[in-house]
Amino acid sequence: MIIKSLAIRNFRNHTSKSLSFNPGINVITGPNTSGKTNIVEAVYYLSLARSFRGVDDEDLVAHRAEYAEIDSQIIEGELKRNIRILITKKGRSVLINGKKVSKVSDLAKCVNVLLFEPKDVLLFRGSPKERRNFLDINLSKQFPVYLEYISRYEKALKQRNELLKSGNYDENLLKATTELLVKYAGPIINYRAMYVKDINDILIKITRALTGVKEKIEIQYRPFVVMSADYQTVALEAFNRSLDNDLKHKATSIGIHREDISVSLNGREIGTYGSQGENRLVALALKLSPYFMIKDEDKKPIVVLDDVMSELDETHQKRLIDFLRKFSQVFITGTELEIDGATHIQLNKAKEVF
Ligand SMILES: Nc1ncnc2c1ncn2[C@@H]1O[C@H](COP(=O)(O)OP(=O)(O)OP(=O)(O)O)[C@@H](O)[C@H]1O
Ligand SMILES: [Mg+2]
After folding, report:
1. What digits encode the pLDDT tens for the residues 276-295?
2. Does domain 122-293 have CATH number 3.30.70.260?
3. C-alpha dihedral over 263, 266, 268, 270, to 10 degrees?
4. Backbone φ and ψ of 196, nearest 5°
5. What is the predicted pLDDT for the residue at 244?
6. 102-108 average pLDDT score
7. CATH 3.40.50.300 residue ranges in the chain?
């Protein structure tokens, strides 16, 4: 899919801006604070109705404005969709071809954006939550039922933690919520295991293309309980064993909400042993890998790479650009960047040129 046009009003520092994009590579350049990241933030917002910068909607509304607006044309094969989002300080509304939609999953079906942002360099060094988010977001986009399991699991987890916190809980109720956790964790483990397995080969190919070196790379997922025919019994036993610990800490200490994935490069864990450059390239490869999981050409995601180039040496920049030429549509931001055959959009700090 591609985003043909984007009009934003009162979105962050952009009072009013209309841009048109092309298939292939689109380069957005401009000095620091000219609003490059803000533009790709609007592009990303079209896919999940939330910012990737972990802020509240109201922060997206330009200072002193009442609401922000994103209006765009998305093309998926023969299909053309208009997506319009209004963000007010009280909430947001999403219109697809003029019809209001309330579920984010309906929006995610129409716009799929893969993002690499500067802080992703720390993907393997930071907290497991970021890595779980990667799995959860991509699995939810591909299998909406996965999101359903995650929501149910989280609801049960909240209940269980409340019981643990109360200090004076009903044993049957605790047992019932634990059983629910086990029930929903089962399919989640299966989905995660399948996804990680499928992604491994893709990861090897992308890393090879980006580095030019044949390295041994392996992604690993360790579920809190290994899936087997007697999963239910084993999982319940695991929860029982950790009950004392859970009561002491007033929180559920095991489960799919505590799981993690790791990547090893030539047998060593990248987060612990990898150089900054290796971390950057492998994180980038992982973030791009869902692109190759989607087989339907019309549904290939839009890729956004915010500020990825500046830290790469010339050879790696060239390799990355050559690799990105095969993609349906890519947005790359940078202060100075020129790519042959790409669409260039220059932002101006002092005076808006568009
Ligand atoms: N709600 C808002 N209203 C008005 N301005 C905002 C708002 N939120 C952020 N800004 C401003 O937007 C400006 C541009 O931010 P942005 O992160 O897009 O810049 P950038 O071009 O990506 O810069 P860099 O090259 O440093 O990454 C910043 O100066 C910031 O203060
Ligand atoms: Mg930026």
Report:
1. 999 999 999 999 999 999 99
2. no
3. -40
4. -65, -40
5. 95
6. 91
7. 1-112+296-354
Q: Which of 104, 91, 122, 97 is nearest to 44 (CA)?
A: 104
What b/e string do you get for 213-246 counting C-beta neighbours within 10 Å, with b at 16 or more?
eeeebebebebbbeeeeebeeebbeebeebeeeb
Q: Which CATH class is domain 1-112+296-354?
A: alpha beta
pLDDT at 354: 45
User: Please, where in the chain does CATH 1.20.1050.90 lie?
Assistant: 122-293
Number of Cβ atoms within 10 Å of the Cβ of 129: 12
Q: Is the CB of 64 under 6 A from ligand 1?
A: no
Using the mean position of ligand 1's atoms as its centre, give its distance from the Cα of residue 39 in Å.
9
Ligand 1 centre to CA of 12 (Å) is 7
Q: Is 62 in the pocket of ligand 1 (CB under 6 A)?
A: yes
> Could you tell me the distance, in angstroms and rounded to a whole number, from the CA of residue 338 to the centre of ligand 2?
17
According to the model, what pLDDT value does residue 168 have?
A: 86
pLDDT at residue 310, rounded to an integer = 86
Nearest C-alpha to atom 28 of ligand 1 is from which residue? 33
Answer whether residue 268 shows pLDDT above 60: yes
Does residue 36 have its Cβ closer than 6 Å to ligand 1?
yes
Distance 98 CA to ligand 1 centre (A): 30
Q: What is the pLDDT of residues 158-214, one digit of tens each?
A: 999 999 999 888 999 999 999 999 999 999 999 999 999 999 999 999 999 999 988
Atom of ligand 1 nearest to the CA of 41: 18
- Going by C-alpha positions, the residue among 335, 330, 339 that lies closest to residue 348 is 335
Q: Are 307 and 333 in contact (CB under 8 A)?
A: yes
Residue closest via CA to ligand 1's atom 8 equals: 12
Task: Name which of 119, 141, 144, 114 is nearest 129 in CA terms.
Answer: 119
Pocket test for ligand 1, best of 38, 44, 115 (most atoms within 8 A of CB): 38
Instruction: Pick the atom of ligand 1 nearest to 34's CA.
Output: 21
